[in-house]
Amino acid sequence: MALYWASKHAVEGLSETLDHEARRTVARIPDYDKELGVVSRAIQNNVQKVPLPDGVAATIVDAALGPWKMRYTPKGEASLLAKLRRFMPADPVEKGLRKTFGLA
Questions:
Q1: Of the candidates 101, 104, 94, which has an alpha carbon nearest to the alpha carbon of residue 36?
Q2: Mind listing the pLDDT tens digit for each residue in 60-99?
Q3: What is the CA radius of gyration of the chain?
Q4: How many CB atoms lie within 10 A of CB 96?
Q5: From CA 54, how far away is CA 20, in angstroms rounded?
Q6: Are 83 and 75 spatial neighbours (Cβ–Cβ below 8 Å)?
Q7: Phi, psi dihedral angles at 96 (to 5 degrees)
Q8: How remote is the C-alpha of 4 from its chain's centroid?
Q9: pLDDT for position 3
Q10: Cα dihedral sign for 49, 19, 36, 92?
Q11: Are 42 and 101 in contact (CB under 8 A)?
């Protein structure tokens, strides 16, 4: 469990550093343009599949006012991803995510 937390904090630190570096740039970095376009299209395609706001609000209300649960993962791809991350090695899960976002 300690390794999990250490790696989680390492990933958060790297993400935060990358965020700061990206915000400091005055001009676009040409090396990132291709991947930016691919990931942007993948995100736009996935946004079309998200639940409607009323469904999200109902889920939040159920979580807040319904019977207490230790952890609740939404249905669909989020639930599948949570299970894959728990029971599969990281490499195949990462490859799947990269494929989903067109970075494979």
A1: 101
A2: 888 888 887 766 666 777 778 888 888 888 888 888 888 8
A3: 17
A4: 15
A5: 34
A6: no
A7: -65, -45
A8: 17
A9: 45
A10: negative
A11: yes
| Beta carbons of 102 and 34 less than 8 angstroms apart | no
Contact 102, 41 (CB under 8 A): yes
- Per-residue pLDDT at 58 exceeds 80: yes
CB-based contact 93:85 (threshold 8 Å): yes
Residue 1 is given by DSSP the state: -
The tens digit of pLDDT for each residue in 11-47 reads 777 777 777 777 766 777 788 888 888 888 888 888 8
> Which of 69, 73, 74 is CA-nearest to residue 55?
74
Within a 10 A sphere around the Cβ of 73, how many other Cβ atoms? 12
The confidence score (pLDDT) of residue 4 equals: 47
Find out whether 39 and 102 touch, Cβ atoms under 8 Å.
Answer: yes
